Amino acid sequence: MKNFKKAAFVLAVLLLLAGCKKVPSKAATKAGVNFGAAITIGDALNQEQIKLITENFNTVVAENNMKWENIHPKKTFYNFGDMDTIADMAVSNGMKVRGHTFIWYQQNAPYVSSIKSDDELKAHLEEHITKVMEHYKGKIYEYDVANEIFEEDGSFRKSFWYNRFGEEIYEFAFEVAHKADPDAILILNDYNNENAGDAKSDAQYKFVKKMVEKGVPINGIGLQLHLQENLPFSKDAIRKNVQRYGELGLKVSFTEVDVRVKTPATPEAVKHQQEIFCDLLDIALTEPNVDTFVFWGVSDAHTWVPGTFPGYGDPLPIDKDNKPKEAMKAMVKMF
Ligand code: XIL
User: Fold this and answer.
1) Are 51 and 298 in contact (CB under 8 A)?
2) CB distance 190 to ligand 1 below 6 Å
3) What digits encode the pLDDT tens for the residues 126-150?
């Protein structure tokens, strides 16, 4: 009897371990990675999608619901409903939530640019950040405080915010965000900013370094990593970039990972896509200042890619039928 009990116990432990290994979200959590996906309000209301998301990921971000036009469509009206549904679904399933995004040149509510007084606009930005962050205090661990503020040549993007206030507005936004939720991780996010040595990446690094030296409460940067399979990819240049932020004491989050392929995808392209995902995950697992790795979508069944890059698609490690690609299995092994 005693032996039987012992054998049953060992079997239970083995099954548990095997189970942990097989469930991607659990394996990621064990490895200390916030492994996530951008989701829609439809996802958060659909039991099948919730199952797919919770099995594969331990972190979510709203693909659109926290953007200004959605969460604050009228000057005196905050529309927290959909974001609450997403955040509550995530938290009740033990997942983490990222916040995306405050200062951006796109998807602002139309009324914002009609505020003519600079003082009033700045105060309104402060109100927006404060209200949203206080609302989600304790639920959202990390925010993209500012998004896509550089042009490809490294100059500041001539966005509505920059044209009104200059670069000072970004520092202001980080100060305000830190005051609203001192525990939140505050990120400056962008695309095409992953390779050390590129004009845009280097300009971002210089600006962030200056912020750190001035004592602005920034905790890290976001690499969106919207990549294309048939373009050059340099693991070394990305690692170098990640490391130089580490030397400043900053985090680097992988915030919107997808690797689009020309459609219909060839087996070679899918294989190469897998290598890129695994190279990125290797950086995340080996560089101590990376702990967030979020895909821009749950599966190839819904992604922004075909609408934005005609002729391209299938950018995620879960396919159109919501089945894991070899890439997903390989990443789980790496955990
Ligand atoms: C995209 C969404 O995926 C689309 O649904 C929306 O129509 C436009 O925005 N960089 C970002 C994201 O920071 O917010 C963008 O998301 C993709 C590029």
Assistant:
1) no
2) no
3) 999 999 999 999 999 999 999 999 9
